[in-house]
Amino acid sequence: MQMLDRVSLNAIRVFALVAKHGSISLAADEFCVTASAVSHQIKNLETHLGVSLFVRKNNSIRLTDTGLSFLADVSPGLVILNQATEKLFRDSNEVVVRVSVTFAVRWLIPSLERFKQRYPAAKIRLETSGFADVSLDPFSDIAITYRQKGDYQDKEDTLLTDYCCPVLSPDLLAQSGYRQSKDIIHLPALKCTENNWDWGAWCTEVGIDQTTIDFADQFDIDDAALRAAVAGLGMVLSSDFMIKSEVENKTLVKLPGFEAVELGRYCLQEGARKDGMVEKFKNWLFEEMAIVSQC
């Protein structure tokens, strides 16, 4: 028991972070300490426990079988500890939401005023990601993630099914000489997803050979590609609710001759907090998305 009393909780947290990253240097960066300090913590932990947690070879590090077992055992406790600590400092009216940059700037932020009008005391903390596939972390209450069609998960609640079609600037459409659907090959297309999966799925659904599409510029997020489309650089795939203001201002139009097709879903992931303002925000999201789906 005395030996166990000497095991540092911080060393266990360091161990879990090294295991997560598979790297001492990355763990050190996250803790804002030196790599040697992290190595010292790991070595002390192994000494106190009397086991080897990692195999070190050729500047790489990986968990031993014992390390894998230890990680599985301590991880739930670390999550509970992090949540309990966070709860002490959190305002009960605060809701931490993780979401992609595009979803945040194109829909959520412009819509938040309606939630704040209903619940003036609410404090929303947005954490954005350049990736659409967003996930919860121990400190977030809600994550709005994107699932490609065919990758849906039963444990996640669907907020909105994503129906997309090509959109472009009116000037580009007029200048291109586009008259019918087969003329799509004369229009530049913009890429903004990993492996260009959205265009691949869309082409399959509408029966177009993807290799005939003239792909031009590439962007790391949808919002940037949509802004490029407004500037006349090409067409991009989008759902209606993402381009509401551009359609109203007539800076983007749908490409004639094509119907929107289902490419994926926006899904909701819930953290440990499921009451109070978190529950109010979740219910509001479903109400808003129901309205969007009817438009």
What does this structure look like?
One of its GO terms (molecular function) is DNA binding. Pfam families: HTH_1 (PF00126), LysR_substrate (PF03466). Belongs to the LysR transcriptional regulatory family. This protein is α/β, with parallel strands linked by helices. It folds into 3 domains: 2-74, Arc Repressor Mutant, subunit A (Orthogonal Bundle); 94-161 and 264-294, Periplasmic binding protein-like II (D-Maltodextrin-Binding Protein, domain 2), CATH 3.40.190; 162-263, D-Maltodextrin-Binding Protein, domain 2 (3-Layer(aba) Sandwich), CATH 3.40.190. Helices cover 45% and strands 22% of the residues. The protein is built from 11 helices and 11 strands. The protein has helices at residues 2-5, 9-21, 24-31, 35-49, 65-89, 101-118, 170-176, 197-206, 222-230, 244-248, 276-294; strands at residues 54-57, 60-63, 94-100, 123-129, 142-148, 157-168, 188-191, 214-218, 236-238, 253-254, 261-270. The strands form 3 sheets. Strands 3, 4, 5, 6, 9, 10 and 11 form a 7-stranded mixed beta sheet that branches. Helix 2 crosses helix 3 (24-31) and helix 3 packs across helix 4 (35-49). The protein is globular. The protein starts with a helix and ends with a helix.
CATH homologous superfamily caption of the largest domain = Periplasmic binding protein-like II
Helix fraction, binned, reads: 40-55%
Mean pLDDT: 92
Secondary structure category: alpha/beta
Largest sheet: 7 strands, mixed
Distance between the termini: 64 Å
Order of helices and strands: HHHHEEHEHEEEHEHEHEHEEH
Tally of DSSP β-strands: 11
What count of domains describes the coordinates?
Answer: 3
The stretches of 5 or more residues where confidence is low (pLDDT under 50) are none
In CATH, what is the class of the largest domain? Alpha Beta
Q: Which value, in Å, is the CA radius of gyration?
A: 24 Å
